[in-house]
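In this section we walk through a basic example: taking a raw amino acid sequence and producing a predicted 3D structure, encoded as discrete structure tokens. The instruction is simple. Fold the sequence below.
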Amino acid sequence: MNIFIASIEGSTGFLTSEESWHCAKVLRKKSGDAIHLIDGKGNFYEGILELVSEKQSKVQITKGPTAQPKRNYYFHLAIAPTKQMDRIEWMIEKAVEIGIDEISFVSCKNSERTSVKTERIIKIVESAVKQSLQAILPKVNELKNFKEFIQQTNVDQKLIAHCYDMPKHEIKNVNFKNRSTLVMIGPEGDFSLEEVEFSKQNNFTPISLGTNRLRSETAGLYVCQAVSLLS
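The resulting token sequence is shown next.
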């Protein structure tokens, strides 16, 4: 089943320019064809194509909105991108399929990568949302400096995963239900001790992801899976 992202205005849907190009050139859809739509805000629709072009396609809505069941948690993952970006891209694809609400990138003292192509990440997110038959597009944020990001965060609980030998909460003991949670994952060389202390000063709680040392992208996916299962 092909799903397209559209803006909905009353009983009419308008595919984005990229979706229109895919609809017309790749799938070779024509006027009169039935298609499935999402608005990215949590609703599914069905409709009939009225106009198909490479730049914009227009759809007459025949069914919907049908709301996607809401999760009982809000999960925001912030991660320092790895030197090999394809590893983070793979993680994001899988995280979206599992269930995530917001993704941020942070630049840390030990970061080996200081830039992220946000537009490419958004495309990966959109593809994963459609592939997994979801209707909500997770929010993707631009890369920010660690301290700037820490000071601008506003959620119910803020967690930071690191490898230092100090008191930490086990992730299995964290309650994610009915609350918004941010989990921060550091770069391949981990957060600096100064960054960990700064996060604690800003009401972050250190957590442990077990005894094994995990790669950044593995840790990110591990947390996504844990939040989903524990909720």
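Looking at the output, two observations stand out. The chain has two domains: 3-67, 74-230. Residues 74-230 form a domain with the Alpha/beta knot fold (CATH 3.40.1280.10). In the next section we compare this with other chains.
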